[in-house]
Amino acid sequence: xxxxxxxxxxxxxxxxxxxxxxxxxxxxxxxxxxxxxxxxxxxxxxxxxxxxxxxxxxxxxxxxxxxxxxxxxxxxxxxxxxxxxxxxxxxxxxxxxxxxxxxxxxxxxxxxxxxxxxxxxxxxxxxxxxxxxxxxxxxxxxxxxxxxxxxxxxxxxxxxxxxxxxxxxxxxxxxxxxxxxxxxxxxxxxxxxxxxxxxxxxxxxxxxxxxxxxxxxxxxxxxxxxxxxxxxxxxxxxxxxxxxxxxxxxxxxxxxxxxxxxxxxxxxxxxxxxxxxxxx
Length: 280
Ligand code: C2E
Ligand code: MG
Ligand code: MG
Ligand code: MG
Prior knowledge:
- The chain has 280 residues and is an alpha/beta fold.
- 51% of the residues lie in helices and 19% in strands.
- It contains 10 helices and 9 strands.
- It has helices at 2-37, 72-81, 85-105, 126-138, 158-171, 188-192, 202-205, 212-227, 240-248, 265-279; strands at 41-49, 52-64, 68-70, 113-116, 145-150, 174-180, 197-200, 231-234, 253-254.
- Strands 1, 2, 3, 4, 5, 6, 7, 8 and 9 form a 9-stranded mixed β-sheet that branches.
- Helix 6 links the parallel strand 6 and strand 7.
- Helix 3 (85-105) packs parallel to helix 4 and helix 4 (126-138) packs parallel to helix 5.
- The longest helix has 36 residues, at 2-37.
- It is globular, with a radius of gyration of 21 Å.
- The relative contact order is 0.11.
- This is EAL domain-containing protein.
- It comes from Lederbergia citrisecunda.
């Protein structure tokens, strides 16, 4: 009897393994095609200071005719593995710069756009030239670009990474550490490198109002950041309780579903117009 059961389990197990393998191949192949065509879309998620939009983050979206919506959380790591991430980040960066410049030219408030940059970009020489290229083709001033990089960039080849960051700062773009606290959290970059901003990872933000340890930790991060003159963003705010707690702690900027999900460029335009109207 138990053998029969085992057989059934093994059968389902094999099925699901095979499907996973097929899915992966399908994603890889479709990804190669869409990267060649540059057939992505860029969504934007605003960041707020009180009820005013201070900047926005560009987040890539891939809607495949066969696969449907594929989350960047699943295709970015694959793109990193199979060597497509350079082209993807290049596409996002150029697109974000062009869009930001277009908004500025059309009279929208001038606010920076944050672009996520894979840690893989720090393993080669092209990041600095990629940023220069994006500035040239878009005509955007460098102070409107913020590059979001994750802590994992600072694990190895620190001298090399430091030289790249300094070159980027010389160009005039801003540097933000994304998902701060999530992984390897070293304080070294904050001390040694010209970092402008940290984004506290969502895991420290969710339910912060009812978690004493979290709130003390975040309070400490905030006072450290203030001492170092770093801008602090809390990411992933979903509830009013979380918002109120972070605001009372004096966090500079807030971002999350409570305020807005990532939305299309068109939708951002009407948000910016409303925002502008409110200020008058
Ligand atoms: P990230 O940079 O940490 O971006 C935050 C992610 O959390 C986004 O997911 C965003 O939609 C989501 N998020 C925002 N507010 C909330 C909230 O209140 N609750 C919850 N549960 N989630 C929230 P998304 O758009 O799926 O992106 C996932 C990750 O993919 C990003 O994490 C980023 O690391 C990466 N990514 C996105 N676009 C690019 C890109 O152009 N290049 C690279 N290298 N990575 C990208
Ligand atoms: Mg980010
Ligand atoms: Mg993040
Ligand atoms: Mg995160």
